[in-house]
What does this fold into?
Amino acid sequence: MPELPEVEVVRAGLAPAVIGSFITAVSVFDERALTRHAAGPSDFVARLEGRRVTAADRRGKFLWLPLDTADSALIAHLGMSGQMLLRAPDAEAERHERIRISIEHPRHGELAIVFADQRTFGSLAVDGLVPDGPTWIPTQVVHIARDPIDPMFDDDRFLRALRTRGSAIKRVLLDQQTISGVGNIYADEALWAARIHPATLASALSTQASRRLLAEIRVVLVKALAEGGTSFDSQYVNVNGQAGYFAHSLNAYGRGGQPCPRCGTLIRREAFMNRSSHYCPRCQRRR
It folds into this structure.
């Protein structure tokens, strides 16, 4: 599933092409792509056509395009395989195209935003905006915590939350109400970098270890963002259809049975929450 770096790459790619653009037409080819829009395709189209996009925002794994109605936005969750692609207005349909939004930008001219999704777990919607401090966020995002590269992320609040949680630290990192945008890949990478076993209880971490972990989370996310995110197959791509290459920089995730880059011990892979955890049994001893 796309995590913070992948979604941020998509948001940053969309921004210059969509901010200030006018939505001229919307075509819904598959209603499954509107599971987050309960009012259905007709309402979705009516609330978008004729509107102007004013910004491109993100929190965690959600991204949204605020509209000139001031109280609503086009919101997207990419699910497992969703893609937001920029295409020429007359481009042929993508293989798994679900929705096409035609726009006209004052500088870039006519373009199409294509939502393609092979596994149909992603969704678009038009959602209302509500205030959240100095910003406005969709109602579907109010339960999502800020992410660690958000300038308004509260380090002390996160560290206090860790002290009260009797769950495994990796489970806490995947809880989007505690910290957003950190999924399975980047949790494994940050825990490896911080030398913390994924099953260590969050409440058992020292203040020093917690701060080290938060710092490593930021390092991993920023590096992944700089490298365009992580792509293992064709399902995650940026708005131009290009894959990210952070997969070549992974130290733990997906490297089960391979030597740890730090000590040479074989990376261990274990089942975790219907997924897998990858860690070095020597560098990340459970205490």
Remarks:
- The mean pLDDT is 90.
